Amino acid sequence: MTSGQRANSFAARIVAWQRTHGRHDLPWQNTRDAYRIWLSEIMLQQTQVTTVLPYYERFLQRFPDVLSLAAASEDDVLALWAGLGYYSRARNLHRAAQQVVTQHGGRFPADVDALAALPGVGRSTAAAIAAFAYDVVAPILDGNVKRVLARHAAVDGFPGASTVEKKLWQIASERLPAQSADIVAYTQGLMDLGATVCTRGDPRCGGCPVAADCAAREQGRTAELPTARPAKALPERRQRYLLLRHSDDVLLVKRPAPGIWGGLWCLPEIGDDESALPALLRKRFGVNRIGDTRQLPDIVHTFTHFRLTLVITEVAVAGRTPVARDSGTVWLALADASGAALPKPISRLLISMSDAKRIA
Fold it and tell me: Element (H or E) spanning 246, and its range?
């Protein structure tokens, strides 16, 4: 069998398997609406389907089309995204919607390069959108697909390394189906295969449509491929925050973007010098009279690349100066915390405080 025949055989088996055994009832399937497809693909970047489902439904209820999303405020978008993580995706989602409206007349382009140029999209996501919405034949290479191809072709090396990724892109391009009519089933099939059969741990090779010529299976290497990310100790960081409270309101500041929690409302960061706190309150927040001060239990929050310990000092304020939201500072009622654009650990803290207040 020639390399071309092998590639066609691979694609044909994936297509046939997907049509019989793949997933067909996800809310973003069975549609040609590029907006819905794009929204799902952005949400699914580095996030599991079960986590995305409720967020996807809420987004569509609030923003049913690209025009409504483009016209929304960043705060509204981030509030709906809160808890889904990787917040740069939400900011890019908003910017991309605005570009689709201003540069493409409110219609997502069918060209892969034009799609990839949108903020937060990239090559693989662009190919998936083009395939599902417009039957464009182009390779994808998300995390699940990397695992399938790395095992099937026995590609050594961490898939995130540039040389390894380049090789996987070549393999992905070579194995595309010849007919555009098959590209939706093929693209979805690769995703489904990686998510449900060729899983990271304990792959179900008996149910795999391409197991017969899988090099990793033949060599007994499914457990070691793809090669894991090189081990690296997770850095630890500590940061002090100020929970400035007046009655049932809490002072929040808007985080700068880019950066962690960029664009979200958060407790203000403070330094370690306790003696400087009164001057800080006067200068930054116009607070002259303070009441009780107490240290809250530390909160540990793990990001992809580091672990953050939040050290939080709560200060009761006897009086406060009104602030405007557009100044980057706002007083938030504890009861409104669940609907605000807050980082997950801050949201959980304020919601728990609100619940405790209500029970009391």
Answer: strand 236-246
Question: Cis omega before residue 322 (within 30°)?
Answer: no
Band (pLDDT 50/70/90 cuts) for residue 239 is very high
- The one catalytic residue in 41, 74, 224, 314 is 41
Looking from the CA of 40 toward its CB, the CA atoms found within 13 Å total 20
pTM metric for this prediction: 0.83
> Which 8-state DSSP code applies to residue 118?
S
Number of alpha carbons in the 13 Å side-chain half-sphere of residue 154: 10
**DSSP-derived pairing of the beta strands 269-270 and 236-246:** antiparallel
Q: Could you count the other beta carbons within 10 Å of the beta carbon of residue 240?
A: 18
Runs of H (alpha helix) within 246-343: 277-285
Q: Averaged over 66-72, what is the pLDDT?
A: 98
Average pLDDT over residues 342-346: 94
Q: If you search the block for the tokens 């590029």, which residue do you land on?
A: 34
Structural domains of the chain, ranges and CATH numbers in brackets: 3-218 (1.10.340.30), 236-359 (3.90.79.10)
At residue 327 the predicted structure's pLDDT band, cuts being 50, 70 and 90, is confident
DSSP 248: T
Q: What are phi and psi of 83, to 5 degrees?
A: 100, -15
41 catalytic residue (yes or no): yes
CA 76 – CA 255 distance, rounded (Å): 15
> Alpha-carbon dihedral of residues 356, 294, 296, 259, nearest 10 degrees?
110
190 in Cβ contact with 120 (< 8 Å): no
Return the number of other C-beta atoms located less than 10 Å from residue 85's C-beta.
15
Q: What is the CA radius of gyration of the chain?
A: 24
